[in-house]
Amino acid sequence: MNYYIININSFALADKSKIMYLHKSIDETKYIVVTTETIDGYIATFESAAALEEYTKEYPSGWVGDNTGITQDEMEDIKYIEGI
Amino acid sequence: MGNISHINSVAVASVSSINAKAYADIADVNSGTLPSSFADSYSVSKSITTGSAQAIYIADGNGFMNYTEDSAFSVSFWVKPGWNSSLNTNIHLFSSNETGSTNASSNMIRCFYHESNNRLYWEMRSSSSSTKKQNFWLFHSNSGNHAAAFAAANLGSSNYWSSSNRGNVGNDNFTMITFTKGSADSFANTNINVYWNATSLGNGHYPSGLHQGTMSMSASTDRQIALGSNTWNTYTKSGNNAETEFNDLTVWNKKLSASEVSELYNSGARMDAKTHSAASDLEAYYKFENDGTDSSGNSHPSFVINGNSNLTSV
């Protein structure tokens, strides 16, 4: 599994069928993506879900409005479904 | 004679008068008792502030909420959203898991609104995130199996559920959310239903439910319970600083029928659930009038209401 922060353009090019989890920033300019695809044009990449969780807890502003970050549990639980 | 739930096949909640006599002015019919509303003065509120000292919770259910994947049960509560439209995360409305456990997956039952995707989830887990059952209802798509939820909630196609867009509401801007589950080990649409103000949200997104692993929830392990937050992670995922209000939590030892949910909704006026036609299956009843005590008669533990969580005038 691969863990990225990407921009809108990179998301447009991403293979949606390989995305397991998607979380848009509050201003919808950046996307956290968990995917089986390898994406080159990323803003940031993380080694694991734990590392990504830690990042969002350290820098929740812009991602979530309650300052809690995004948990691994949420990444596993909220399935990305293309089109909805 | 017991309580009257229907008159000529019409749920009493939908009856406004009988022979020109206003329903509110009728005390009983041939010694049967009509379901009654009550003076609902208080609700309970939960803010973003975390920790047990700031939560609405029961630290040990003492045998209450020990449902398993094979249990038929229902949970209903009223909620008045205080969160804003840019919260962009999970908001827990109801949760329970193993007493004292920080493992979200340990005998867990929860209802949460995922504000990022405008989805209302109900979920049960056994022991890990890979042993679970789940389904969700989507509110902004007026097509396919989402159309019923779109119509029931009436949130619109672009604005999600929040304090500025509460959709269809009952009295005092509260919405009654009701989950009903049959005894099958399944979150398929044939076994579960979710209602918004007694109107069915229709089929969940997954026709057969989202199932992972083999569930084996304990029927004897005690549970901790919370309103407005999770129970396993310092009572977080609560919304934001604008407090969300909750009222009239009821838990039932059966899968309530659509007509029984309609009776409980009582046309938007919170009723005395002890007068409900299914009251013999009422397991727990929290009115949050003067405190967090259980009014079911089953002597369940009281909700602790601490810190920034308060009893609030309706």
Quick one: overall form of chain A? Answer: globular
Strand sequence of the main sheet of chain A, in spatial order? 2-3-1-4
Taken from the alpha-carbon principal axes, the silhouette of chain B is globular
Strand content of chain B: 25-35%
Number of domains of chain A: 1
Tally of extended strands of chain A? Answer: 4
**Rg of chain B (C-alpha, Å):** 19 Å
Straight-line distance between termini of chain B: 33 Å
The secondary-structure element order of chain B is EEEEEEEEEEEEEHEEEEEEHEEE
Low-confidence stretches of chain A: none
Question: Number of helical segments of chain B?
Answer: 2
Assign the CATH architecture of the largest domain in chain B. Answer: Sandwich
| Distance N to C terminus of chain A | 23 Å
Major β-sheet of chain A, in short?
A: 4 strands, antiparallel
Class based on secondary structure composition and strand pairing of chain B: mainly beta
